[in-house]
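Good morning,

Attaching, inline, the backbone tokens for the sequence recovery test we're adding to the shared suite. The designed sequence is right after.
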């Protein structure tokens, strides 16, 4: 164990890699991985998140949670990781080491520096209006040590975003427990990226895929290097001020927008599985922009993000291991559009006009209307050709009421979703790729049907 962590310290102090945009490899285990190169023009354009939208989303998520009284332990169970610290008893005769249970500590006097750092932390909690062990750093030990140091530094790095998190939950029952759960979930997830040859699986893999889509491949690569440096500096820090300086340095690397995405997605991950988190993220702020960016940044459709099973760091980027069928969904989009209708054409057919489609396919059905997932606008006809629009994978039957709501949504302005107040949804979407428009269209049907988008 000691050798492992000595190697880790050597690893994290190496300078972060720089160079061209990293790639994403999509691996289903059936053939050679598909190499996806993120579009360079979008690499520096993360999903913009509004403070009020994120606070509202976090508050909505928090109302469904039952936070553990031991947030560090709960976060470790969620991500299936071991603690880097703890108290142990050593039996000289049997030469056996026994870990003490949470809350049990050894009697010998603690190092003066760790005691003073802990006192400084408790004074900081009082200054922020959250008295006592406000971040839950002392539930498994008498002083701030091990992973608790990193968690404190990460909290200090987030600064204003941590205050936004507190504002979102302060009026709820047990607000301290909710904030501690979100913070420890974020910190434990970040620790996954500080080990040699890091990889995430399950809920952590879905969280990784969603975060990459929100902030971009290159930005996320930089965050990994930042996590490693922050952990090394946290382990070396002797005083609270040194931890705060390390956190503030990383905070400048992360930026407020990425911090908001990180906190929001980490909160969504609490108590989740990969599949349930994949469903939850579709209704979060920025999901509209994420739907458009998913194919461009990660090569997968956003509605399939829950099918990412593992994410590993490669020499030139990331490797996504996907559930069978996920790549097919990203390339063709099939399997989702007709699912809610109870019917599906036997094979793919396309026509040069909508009248030709209707002549062959007939009416949509009682109380239903035909709907183009990628709209049949003049611009789309010119860019993609009529057969790309009038076919059995792009035209689906929708209930009349839902079709009316979707059409009204496309004609409306949605600044909180799109990040612009000057364009309608239709105008904003018209400049996107076919795949991006399709992914957005599928997400729009789902979220409008659920009442999430209006």
């Amino acid at each position: 164990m000691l050798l492992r962590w000595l190697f880790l310290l050597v690893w994290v102090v190496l300078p972060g890699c720089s160079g061209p945009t990293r790639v994403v490899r999509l691996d289903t285990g059936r053939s050679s991985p598909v190499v996806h190169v993120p579009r360079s023009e979008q690499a520096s354009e993360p999903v913009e998140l509004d403070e009020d939208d994120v606070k509202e989303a976090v508050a909505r998520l928090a109302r469904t949670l039952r936070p553990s009284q031991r947030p560090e332990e709960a976060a470790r169970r969620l991500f299936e990781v071991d603690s880097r610290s703890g108290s142990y008893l050593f039996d000289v005769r049997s030469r056996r080491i026994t870990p003490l249970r949470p809350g049990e500590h050894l009697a010998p006097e603690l190092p003066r520096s760790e005691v003073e750092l802990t006192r400084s932390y408790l004074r900081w909690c009082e200054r922020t209006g959250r008295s006592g062990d406000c971040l839950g750093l002392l539930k498994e030990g008498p002083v701030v040590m091990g992973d608790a140091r990193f968690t404190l530094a990460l909290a200090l790095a987030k600064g204003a975003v941590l205050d936004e998190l507190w504002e979102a939950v302060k009026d709820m029952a047990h607000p301290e427990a909710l904030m501690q759960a979100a913070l420890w979930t974020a910190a434990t997830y970040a620790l996954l990226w500080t080990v040699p040859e890091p990889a995430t699986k399950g809920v952590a893999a879905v969280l990784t895929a969603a975060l990459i889509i929100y902030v971009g491949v290159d930005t996320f690569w930089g965050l990994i290097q930042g996590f490693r440096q922050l952990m090394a500096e946290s382990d070396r820090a002797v005083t609270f001020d040194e931890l705060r300086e390390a956190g503030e340095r990383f905070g400048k690397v992360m930026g407020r927008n990425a911090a908001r995405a990180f906190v929001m997605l980490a909160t969504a991950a609490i108590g989740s599985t990969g599949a349930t988190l994949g469903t939850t993220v579709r209704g979060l702020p920025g999901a509209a922009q994420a739907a458009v960016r998913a194919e461009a940044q990660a090569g997968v459709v956003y509605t399939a993000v829950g099918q990412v099973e593992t994410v590993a760091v490669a020499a030139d980027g990331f490797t996504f291991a996907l559930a069978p069928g996920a790549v097919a969904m990203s390339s063709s989009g099939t399997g989702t559009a007709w699912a809610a209708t109870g019917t599906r054409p036997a094979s793919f057919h396309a026509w040069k006009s909508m009248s030709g489609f209707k002549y062959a396919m007939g009416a949509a059905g009682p109380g239903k209307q035909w709907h183009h997932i990628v709209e049949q606008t003049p611009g789309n006809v010119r860019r993609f050709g009529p057969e790309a629009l009038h076919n059995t994978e792009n035209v689906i039957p929708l209930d009349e009421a839902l079709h009316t709501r979707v059409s009204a949504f496309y004609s409306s302005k949605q600044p909180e979703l799109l990040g612009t107040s000057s364009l309608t949804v239709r105008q904003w979407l018209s400049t996107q790729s076919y795949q991006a428009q399709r992914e957005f269209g599928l997400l729009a049907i789902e979220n409008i049907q659920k009442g999430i988008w209006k």
